[in-house]
Amino acid sequence: MKQMCVVGVGYVGLVTAACFADLGNRVIALDINEERIEGLKRGEMPIYEPGLEELVSRNVRAGRLSFTTSYPEALDKTEFAFIAVGTPSGVDGEADLRHVAAVARTIALNMRTPLIIVNKSTVPVGTGDWVAEIVQSHQTKAIPFSVVSCPEFLREGAAISDFMNPHRTVLGSLDPEAAEKVAQLHLPLRAPIVITDLRTAEMIKYASNAFLATKISFINEIANICEELGADIKEVSVGMGYDKRIGPFFLDAGLGYGGSCFPKDVKALAYMAADKGRHPQLLTAVMDINNDRRPMVIDRLKEMVGDLKGCTIGLLGLSFKPNTDDMRDAPSIDIANSLQELGAKVRAFDPVAMKVAAPLLPEVEMAPDPYSMAQDCDALIVITDWNEFKHLDLERIRDQMKEPVVFDGRNIYEPEQMRSIGFNYRGFGRGYNGHMVNAKFEQDVIVAPA
Ligand code: UDX
After folding, report:
1. Residue 261 a catalytic site member
2. Cβ(429)–Cβ(223) under 8 Å?
3. pLDDT digits (tens, 9 = 90+) for 224-280
């Protein structure tokens, strides 16, 4: 049993703390937010993450996991201190490292025994070295310490299973012995461990997220082209995905990426490049394509409905993706605001995010279920691909609506089925979005000369 503390009880910190405790370690999770810590002591989770509440309570009961706001208590006899605090975007897209710096200073002032400081937060390349400088310059007496970068690759909604079944663990340090000790903590996960230097580990995290965001923008660009040429993006993705060099993941066209990671990390990487005088051409295009997705929904809806003034539009889903109540950079916010600016009334239903969304969208009426949400609507927009939306009673939805119009921002329904039920239906990049497209396509067919 190793003893460790985890600073920050957000998604990454709380999942890391609970999972390491479950692997048999003694973990103290620390946060300066007293309300959060008091809530956790009462068993209240600050976030919605499937399985987390049960995992936390099991490990608290077993005496392996506890919560505190006190650094001296968290650092007492602790061998590892994980930093898992937020690194939001600054004004120009650079990562804001205020919280990381504050944690490094406070650790330096409170550590009494040798410590391995492990950074989990996504931080610009070079931050590990900077953290080491901060700790060194704030220690009141010299106590040995090392800094290790161990970036997280957890998806919200699947964070516990991602932690327990990682594709790989990346560790970066200039101190091989410290990296080896952190590697030992990860051995029970039985995944490949890549040990490298600090800066390379930090870069692996940004490059991984930027690559996944690139895949999403790539498929969205192909969806735009499919729409013009009468091809079907869902089938294009399936056909591409069987190629092992491409893979089937992150090829779902739709409203693009949101959330707390991709938008911020792509921006931060582009900022790092520009800061060194490099023009990040590809990353710029990835962001531009993603930024176009939300206004595109409004344009499509206007094509389908006409003037939106006075219309009631229903939003199926609010969170940035399914299985989370996270509303950070959620497309629903921009789309609801644009609809309201155009004079439409907006109603919404989300299985878990309505409580978090309500204060962010004060003018949006929250409905208790999808059917009452659809009542008298002039159109519905699918915003989040929650599984439960795939199995709605669509005839019942149609009967509730004033006009049976659906724009499917996540391509969860099949165009032919929707049309057979009587919906005026469109998605992103679906071949048969309009018969006009097919007609135009037929005219454009080039017959090879005999
Ligand atoms: C992501 C990374 O996956 C994780 O490794 C990282 O450490 C944190 O950021 P997360 O933000 O939780 O995780 O969400 P993810 O499931 O990766 O989806 C990100 C966004 O991309 C969502 O908005 C999702 O709707 C969108 N997406 C994803 C697509 O539009 N198409 C896809 O094919 C996949």
Report:
1. yes
2. yes
3. 999 999 999 999 999 999 999 999 999 999 999 999 999 999 999 999 999 999 999
**10 and 150 part of one domain:** yes
Nearest CA to ligand 1 atom 6: 153
Which region among 127-136, 291-300, 391-400, 424-433 has the lowest average model confidence (pLDDT)?
424-433
pTM value?
A: 0.92
Parallel, antiparallel, or unpaired: how do β-strands 169-173 and 145-149 relate?
antiparallel
CA–CA distance, 331 with 328 (Å, rounded to integer): 9
Other beta carbons within 10 angstroms of residue 143's beta carbon come to 13
Same domain, 157 and 28: yes
- 375 Cα to the center of ligand 1, angstroms: 32
Q: Is 326 in the pocket of ligand 1 (CB under 6 A)?
A: no
Question: 176 and 257: one domain?
Answer: no
Strand partners, 89: 95
Distance of CA 331 from the midpoint of ligand 1 (Å): 13
CA dihedral 328, 384, 242, 189 (to 10 degrees): 50
What is the whole-number distance in angstroms between the Cα of residue 309 and the centre of ligand 1?
33
Residue 229 host element (H or E): helix 198-229
- Give CA torsion, residues 366, 370, 375, 380, to 10 deg: 90
Of 5, 150, 261, 311, which one is the catalytic site residue? 261
Residue 257, ligand 1, Cβ within 6 A: yes
Q: Give SS3 for 97.
A: coil
* 450 DSSP 8-state letter: -
Is residue 54 located within the same domain as residue 159? yes
Pair 399, 376: CB distance under 8 Å: no
For the stretch 305-314, pLDDT in tens is 999 999 999 9
Q: Which among 253, 286, 319 is the end of a domain?
A: 286
Residue 317: closest CA among 364, 263, 251, 252: 364
Q: Are residues 167 and 213 in the same domain?
A: no
> Which amino acid, 184?
Q
What is the rounded distance in angstroms from the CA atom of residue 154 to the CA atom of residue 361?
28
